[in-house]
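Table S2 (text version). Query chain:
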Amino acid sequence: MEKHLELLERAKQQIALADHLIYTTYPIVNEQKLLIKILIEIHNSLENMINSIIQYNYLYKQITNNLFNLETFSKLSRKITNQEEINTIKEIFSLIEKHKQSKMEFVRKEKFVIMTNHLKIDTINIEKIKYYNQITKNIINKIKFN
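Corresponding structure-token output:
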């Protein structure tokens, strides 16, 4: 199987896992720390989906560099994504980066809180996670390789 198809299949599996965690596991355990795990799965799915599109375009000589790049993706995906979806993807990548760099994270009132080094706070709740999941699923479902 070609690499871009493998990456897209992996993206579909990861978003299916995130979907299961959101709608099956989370309601049962009701643990806010699970929200970051779901966000990571959504992020990983997006990474594989973006790499899939970049690999496909590299394979068919539409671009000369096959390195992961959000800007390259946003140019290549104009037919399948809108600006709101691109902004959501950037927001997810930003949250994951803040999570990686964060020295302190905690749960407060149904939210997972990420505190940055500058004492800035970002919160994740189940509604936001469901929105990110839906956006990711929509984009993946629009991808068709000819």
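Notes on Table S2: Strands lie at 104-108, 111-115, 121-124. The radius of gyration is 16 Å.
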